[in-house]
Amino acid sequence: MKRILIAAIALALGASPALAKQIRFPETGDPAIAADVLDSWHVELRDDGNLHISSIDRNLEVLFSIVPFDGTLDDAAIEAMKANHATPPGRGNAVSISGHEGYVYYSLMAGDNNQILNMKMVVVHLDPHTVGLFTIISDQKINALMLGAAQAVVDSVRIAPPQ
């Protein structure tokens, strides 16, 4: 179902649904996640150890982080938001990724030009000592279709099979 959504968004954005690719992060080792990304989007592993996925115009970013963490999901979200100089997060709905329970968190942060950016972060325990954080960072003026494309990437996240 999630691959159908990615294909529908690809068509709406004028791209071929065949241009969706599967990614694994990290490429080797465990725990890891897999997700579906439009082929035209930029996917880059940066020096900070996070996977950055951005739209063609780079006005929207999805950030994947997998970090050692022994605290609660709320504490992981608070620390992540603090590290990004964002407002304290508000907890949203409960979510599940491949049977791993978590929550959605919402926050705001200042962008490079002092514009206000929305942050929507999904946090789940990947194992007892590791959390996955999947964050959409967007300008408040981003159009709904692009935001839907980013949400489809996060919605496609699943735990990758062990290697």
N-to-C CA distance? 25 Å
Number of strands: 10
Major sheet attributes = 7 strands, antiparallel
- Here the CATH topology equals Protein Transport Mog1p, Chain A
Number of helices: 3
Explained architecture:
- There is one protein chain.
- The chain has 163 residues and is α+β, with helices and mostly antiparallel strands.
- The chain has a single domain, classed as Mog1/PsbP, alpha/beta/alpha sandwich (Protein Transport Mog1p, Chain A).
- The protein is built from three helices and ten strands.
- The strands form two sheets. It has a seven-stranded antiparallel beta sheet, sandwiched between helices. Strands 1-2-10 form a three-stranded antiparallel beta sheet.
- Helix 1 runs antiparallel to helix 3.
- The radius of gyration is 15 Å and the shape is globular.
- About 9% of the residues have low confidence.
Helix/strand layout:
Layout: H1 2-12, E1 20-25, E2 33-38, E3 42-45, E4 51-54, E5 60-68, H2 73-83, E6 90-97, E7 100-110, E8 116-127, E9 130-139, H3 144-155, E10 158-159
Antiparallel strand pairs: 1-2, 2-10, 3-4, 4-5, 5-9, 6-7, 7-8, 8-9
Helix pairs in contact: 1-3
Question: How would you summarize what this structure contains?
Answer:
With 163 residues, the chain is an alpha+beta fold. It contains three helices and ten strands. The two termini are 25 Å apart.
Defining traits:
three-stranded antiparallel β-sheet, alpha+beta, 3 helices, Protein Transport Mog1p, Chain A, 163 residues
